[in-house]
Design brief:
With 631 residues, this protein is α/β, with parallel strands linked by helices.
Length: 631
């Protein structure tokens, strides 16, 4: 459609369009990379623009003027999210931050809680039917345009045409300004270092094939996407599409085939990246753009089965409270989409959320896992909403956990040099037992190599990994699930109580080298339960004492033999040459496990017990079935 032929009276230059806006007006400006730069420059240049309130979510172009005294006298900038370009101005009180959930911003406009006199937007040229596209910025732009009394659109052929609810008929627009310019780019700020690599590795462990993912704002959630490149048939339902998704799209890791809501398509509100991304999105029916009140509605999000939300944070306290929008009293970003997606993923069948963050800030000087949030820091996400927290030191599962358990989970993934301090702070606050041992202060990343899985005869898959302090409650539950006979075979007496003190004594001996404990777990919906434990402890003459317990309903499935092989692998790495084990004469099944692996084991008899001496270099030992752990 030729606008000069269809509605020539609406086609004006930017200066004339801006004159249609009255003094004292409330103006909405299109979001992020979709903002109409030419119109913004014209608006600022018009000195008749006085006492103007500007509403925008992500602001870029206005950062060029925000420091000018003239601009500050004439305009008041209200932001729903503080972009990188606006952080300095926000810290100096030159902008005004409106904290709210993205899903609710359109309602603020439609209800006139925030009244709008004018909207400045950017669109693609109209098609033959008179429909322009809002392109890479549908999010709150649709609601801002619908709610404004006056709509001025910059028509730019560089704006991609996007599918979904992005189309606007020319009859809905009051004035058109024809101006061609490159749209705003938000280049990827890759900081791919060891920290992000390790966080990406942990995230890849919990994201399963066929999941639908959401990726929040910020560099970290996007840089770690590259570590999902071995997954299959991922789907996407997210607020913002960035360059981080592009490699997964091109490699067909993202197919959207398994999505339960709008299968086959990426659902989003916003696109922020570079020209390569915009070219990929342009007129591509794979992408389905809708407003934020749809995409970010927790009830809509929950219609995606297996929805995994991945977002970031600035701080997490020991109870699980998350700050993501401020550093102390300084506003840094915004509430954004985090809470919407955390709650939506919690309602999703099989869904869950991940909050990922480096363990430290300021070059390692301060911990991001803290006893309490910094003074002035806002609680963007409550402790009840948080599910999984990941740092470069591991995974903390918080949902359904007590304060005591949360402290142990989070201290365990804090930077090693802050762990003792965090435990002491928790004791002072009465969060944990006064005699609680802190997690190891070593970097235990090498323990990832000790994780493995085994397919069992009952069709389940067991995960094996080292025992951690945060396993206390799961270990306790495992003990009380055992039959009296099994406990007697393991401890040689009818042990009745497996108290906190007993567990502390057991854990205090585990250093992951001289002494080691491996647990076997199975998945039950969103949690794992222990079904077996195998340990070795330092002995004499280069040997370690080894022992096992397997829950009765999982006995006879080769678990003890598997644990024995894995413990041998670890013990040999730590310079042990063999095992010894003390067992009751009637415990024939355990004796069989030992003799099967070490046919030449030396047996020392006593009245009721046997001691078996086993050498790792036993010449008749069967070959290892799975020498390298697999995770």
């Amino acid at each position: 459609m030729n606008l000069n032929e269809y509605c020539p009276e609406k086609v004006v230059d930017a200066d004339k369009a801006i004159t249609k806006i009255k003094r004292g007006s409330r103006i909405f400006i299109g979001t992020g990379c979709g903002e109409p730069q030419h119109l913004i420059h014209a608006m600022v240049a018009d000195m008749n623009m006085q006492d103007i309130l500007l509403y925008q979510m992500l602001s870029s172009t206005l950062s060029q003027y925000i420091e000018e005294e003239s601009f500050q006298r004439r305009f008041s900038l209200k932001l729903f999210f503080i972009s990188r370009a606006m952080r300095k101005a926000a810290s100096e009180g030159k902008t005004d931050y409106i904290p709210t959930y993205l899903s609710q911003i359109p309602t603020l406009f439609y209800s006139h809680r925030i009244g709008l006199d004018a909207a400045l937007i950017q669109v693609s040229p109209p098609d033959k039917f008179g429909y322009c596209s809002l392109g890479v910025s549908v999010d709150i732009t649709r609601a801002g345009m619908d709610s404004a009394k006056l709509v001025i659109a910059q028509v730019n052929p560089h704006m991609p045409k996007t599918w979904g609810d992005s189309f606007v008929h020319v009859d809905e627009i009051d004035y058109f300004v024809m101006h061609e310019e490159a749209i705003v780019e938000s280049p990827p700020l890759w900081k791919d270092d060891e920290v992000t690599q390790r966080i990406g590795m942990y995230i890849s462990q919990v994201v399963e094939d066929g999941s639908t993912i959401q990726v929040g704002f910020g560099y970290l959630p996007n840089v770690i996407l590259q570590y999902l490149d071995k997954k299959k048939d991922l789907g996407v339902h997210t607020q913002v599409i960035t360059n981080g998704l592009l490699p997964l799209l091109k490699k067909k890791v993202i197919t959207n085939k398994k999505k339960t809501l709008i299968p086959g398509r990426v659902v989003a509100s916003l696109c922020m990246g570079n020209k390569e991304l915009y070219d990929y999105v342009h007129n591509n029916p794979m992408f389905y753009f809708r407003s934020s009140n749809y995409v970010n509605d927790p009830n809509v999000i929950a219609r995606n089965n297996n929805l995994i939300s991945i977002s970031s944070a600035l701080e997490v306290d020991l109870t699980g409270q998350v700050c993501s929008d401020s550093i102390g009293n300084l506003f840094y970003s915004g509430i954004g989409d985090q809470v919407d997606f955390l709650r939506g993923s919690a309602m999703s069948k099989g869904g869950f959320s991940i909050v990922a963050l480096p363990s430290t800030a300021q070059g390692g000087k301060v911990s991001r896992i803290v006893p309490n949030l910094s003074p002035g820091a806002g609680v963007a996400t409550t402790r009840a909403d948080v599910d999984i927290v990941i740092t470069e030191y591991g995974i903390a599962e918080l949902q359904g956990k007590s304060i005591y358990q949360r402290v142990m989970e989070l201290a365990q993934i804090a930077h090693p040099k802050f762990r003792e301090e965090l435990i002491e702070s928790a004791k002072q606050r009465g969060y944990i037992f006064a005699d609680q041992l802190p997690p190891s202060t070593e970097d235990l990343i090498y323990l990832e190599g000790y994780k493995s899985t085994k397919d069992l005869r009952n069709g389940k898959t067991a995960l094996f990994r080292p025992l951690f302090p945060s396993d206390e409650f799961a270990y306790r539950n495992f003990f009380y699930s055992l039959q009296e006979k099994t406990i007697y075979y393991r401890f040689f007496y009818k042990m009745k109580i497996f108290s906190h003190e007993v567990l502390q004594r057991q854990y205090s001996s585990v250093d992951y080298t001289r002494n080691m404990s491996l647990i076997g777990m199975i998945q039950r919906k969103r949690h794992q339960e222990i079904i077996a434990i195998g340990s070795y402890a330092e002995g004499d003459e280069g040997r370690a004492e080894v022992a096992f317990v397997v829950r009765e309903d999982y006995q006879g499935m080769g678990i003890a033999s598997y644990l024995l092989e894995k413990l041998e692998f670890i013990a040999a790495q730590n310079n042990y040459t063999g095992f010894y084990a003390t067992t009751l004469r009637e415990n024939t099944s355990m004796i069989h496990v030992f003799k099967k692996r070490y046919p030449n084991a030396k047996v020392i008899h006593s009245s009721s017990e046997l001691v078996l001496l086993m050498d790792f270099n036993d010449p008749d030992k069967p070959a290892n079935q799975d020498r390298q752990p697999r995770i």
